[in-house]
Amino acid sequence: MVGRIVPLVVKELLQLRRDRYALVRLVVLVLVQLFMFGYAATFEVHRVATAVLDRDQSQESRELLSRFTASGRFEVTAVAGDVRELTRLVDTGQATVAVQIHPGFAARLRKGDTAPVQVIVDSTNSNTALVALGYVSRIVDAFAEDYATDRVARSAPARLRRIPRVVLAPRPWYNPSLESRWYFVPGVIGSLMLVITVNLTAFAVVREREIGTLEQIMVTPIRPVEFVLGKTLPSFLIGLGEMVLITLVGTLWFRVPFRGDPVVLLLGSSLFLTSTLGMGLLISTLCRTQQQAFASSFFVLMPAFVLSGFSFPIASMPPVLQWITYAIPLRYFLVVLRSTFLKGVGLRVLWPEMLAMAAIGVTMVAVSALRFRKSLE
Amino acid sequence: MTWRRTTAIARKELLHVRRDPRSLLIALLLPIMQMLLLGYGATLDAKHLAVYAFDRDGSQTSQALLERFRASAYFDLVRTVDRYADLAAAVDAGRARLALVVPPDFSRRLRAGGTTTVQAIIDATDDNTANLATAYAEAVVDRFSEDLQLDWLRREGLPDRAAAPPISVEVRTWYNEDLESRNFIVPGVVALVMALVGALLSSLTIAREWERGTMEQLVSTPVTAREIMLGKLLPYFAIGLVDAALCVGVGIGWFGVPFRGTVGTLVVATALYLVVVLGIGFAISVAIPNQLGASSIAILVTLLPTNMLSGFAFPIDQMPAPIRAVSYVVWARYYLTILKAVFLKGSGLGTLAGPLGAMALYAAIVGTVATRAFRKTLD
Asked: In chain A, which ranges are E strands?
């Protein structure tokens, strides 16, 4: 059996080497996408373009505004002279955040009255707006806190110093400086492996059928099982190769930590590949031409990508979509990837994901193998 | 160039589309599917985050604090544990996004007066959710702290004002008042769909003629190269406009995304964008004579930049300078600016003159390149 599979694998790899665009598709494009996600995919909020209108011009108002710049989250790019100018800066998109300090700000503070500060946020991008508002309230709270502490220390009755206060001490685990890159780079491994191996497998079979060489193979003594193995093994190896490539570039170039066990990652990758290869085979049994295969794989891969949790958290999706995600192998693989890279946990934690991928993989392969025999007859 | 010959080619192309139900299905089903998938699935909001708590104090005050988390729409207090190891294990396994540790002397220290700290472990694998979770948790704790202080002041017979936060922030969220992810994502989907459909369909037109061997027949007819190009792209231009209308219809009618601009601006921008996308698809189809190669390259060239560098989901101003420079070349960037402005901001032609001009320039360049690239020869 091995004697008949090996030549087929060699034939597939030879065919790939002759394909001028194969190297471009499998290495260059993969790296281009990895670099896009490593550099461009960020939900972080730094140095947001901010316009200010200080109508109080006091020591207090200047101190508050300087804290915005000092935080590194905001960058004052424009100082408006009046409200109309402030509005225009936001309308034209020159400023994402606008801060207005009303006249009498310092006077109210000194009297112990509440002093309002107006903050306008361009929330076209709702996420940036939300995160930026979080920083605004942190900065203003810290300023208010310091001011109140000063005031209490100076004038209030001594017992006011005993006022109870609860503060939260956040400890972000696994990604302490909250870098988007650490989240996306491991995920890219899964999404690229998915696209590449499903397409490779689907086309490997459909191409033979379209060109008419499938009949030639069928008259040789090779058995269907051997044929399927011979067709999928090269994709499997290429899939693992991509995983190693992206892991190396991700850890060495982008400095994403790898805290887990490589063996766990290898096991997870193999289980994941079983399901993607099964999916590729299934598509190949449903399509007569490469064009159809292309369209079908697109219709399968796109939802898988959106619903996998690659960039949008599954927990925030509506319940119906959440149920669908359980059938998507990439969902489990992303957990394995991010956990091995960032959390450093092993099988003791990841066994449910592994089991789910194995179950989906076996089902996929079984269904496609059954269909495959039919499509040959 | 005659109009009669151009429409003849267009009719022939339309027949191709009609005879191939799959590509028609792609053209009409894909926009709706994309819209529903992204409209429902693409949300960055954080709600119902799983919370584990380790209450080492076990007092009425600490229970009251946990009750605040239970009542918040952003958090689901899943369970309370008795050991720190259980808490860490829950975070490790991803069962808890947030884990609260209330110190053993929590209520005692509050009674004695002064500041007490509650630790919050956050699973920061997903940095964005972690960021939002931190802000929400801080808000819950702040409110709790303020209420404690008011109670304390009343008991001490001091005026409420003594502890009132001296600064209040009045927040105005413009253009997307409820901070809905959907309002931010859905307008961009229009650009995504058109990049996809336009490139996919147009990239096949020339390659198909080569693969089926009908190019020779076409060359032997009196039609000129320009007539072939125009005739072939016209039907897809029409399909693209229908798709855009479908997307906008679903976005406004189904998802309730506001539409504050003028239809005219949207139509002009969409037509220009289609010229660019179809022209690129056509040029690729001329350069790569097989259907598969042409369509996969076309998708990559149009879809990847539209997805990543246009500001569709990732804010351009947060990217490193070299990538930001590249984004100026991405035609979708200008279309995205216009889409978001037309849907949410309600800007008119005046403020959008810049991006519209950039798109017109692009359409002219791509149109010229595509026309030049296609020669009516057989070699």
From this structure: 48-54, 74-79, 97-101, 115-122, 165-173
As for the ipTM of the complex, it is 0.85
Whole-number Cα distances in Å, B211 to A40, B18, B218? 38, 19, 13
Could you tell me if residue A175 is left (phi over 0), alpha (psi between -120 and 50 degrees) or otherwise beta? beta
**Cβ atoms within 10 Å of A6's Cβ, excluding its own:** 12
Which whole-number Å values give the CA distances from B48 to A317, B76, B133, in the listed order? Answer: 11, 5, 10
Question: Which pTM was predicted?
Answer: 0.87
Share of chain A above pLDDT 70, in %: 96
| Token output for B36 | 């529903």
- Which among B26, B91, B323 has CB closest to A40? B323
The confidence score (pLDDT) of residue A158 equals: 67
Domains of chain A: 2-41+181-376 (no CATH), 48-162 (3.40.1710.10)
| For chain A, counts of helices (H) and of strands (E) | 15, 5
Integer Cα distance of A94 and B244 in angstroms: 29
**Taking a C-beta distance cutoff of 8 angstroms, is the pair B132, B87 a contact?**
no
B137/A contact by beta carbon, under 8 A: yes
Nearest to A109 by CA among B156, B161, B143, B147: B161
Domain B49-162 has CATH 3.40.50.720: no
Scan for tokens 């998802």, then name that residue: B255
**Where are chain B's structural domains?**
3-42+180-373, 49-162
Test mutation, A168, A207, A336, chain B, max B CBs within 10 A: A168
> How high is the pLDDT of residue A155?
63
Chain A nearest-CA distance from B4, in A, is 31
Rounded to the nearest angstrom, the gap between the alpha carbon of residue A359 and the centroid of all alpha carbons in its chain is 25
* In chain A, residues 255-284 whose CB comes closer than 8 Å to chain B: none
Amino acid identity at A97: V
Q: Which own/partner contact pairs does B218-221 have at CB distance under 8 Å and 24+ positions apart?
A: B219/B376, B219/B377, B219/B378
CA B38 – CA A298 distance, rounded (Å): 15
Sheet holding B115-123, edge to edge: A165-173, B115-123, B98-102, B49-55, B75-81
Q: Which two tokens stand for residue B360?
A: 């017109």
Half-sphere exposure of B85 (CA within 13 A, CB side): 0
Q: How far is CA B128 from CA A138, A334, B44, B100, B125, in A?
A: 17, 16, 8, 19, 9
pLDDT at site A212 = 78
The Cα B243–Cα B260 span in angstroms is 20
- pLDDT category at A203 given cuts 50, 70, 90 is confident
Cβ separation B42–A312 shorter than 8 A = yes
Q: What is the pLDDT of residue A153?
A: 63
Q: How many CB atoms lie within 10 A of CB A359?
A: 14
CA atoms of B292 and B296, how far apart (whole Å): 6
Residues of chain B found within 8 Å of residue A90, distances taken between Cβ atoms: 174
Alpha-helical runs (H) found in chain B: 3-19, 21-41, 60-71, 84-92, 106-112, 127-156, 181-212, 215-220, 225-249, 263-287, 291-308, 321-327, 331-340, 353-373
CB B53 within 8 A of CB B100: yes
3-class state of residue B78 by DSSP: strand
Cα-only R_g, chain B:
29
Low-confidence residues of chain B, pLDDT below 70?
A: 1, 22, 160-166, 376-379
Q: Which pLDDT tens digit goes with each residue over A300-313? A: 888 898 899 998 88
CB pairs under 8 A between A and B: 319
A59 touches chain B (CB under 8 A): no
A contact test, residue of B25, B28, B37, B127 with most A CBs within 10 A: B127
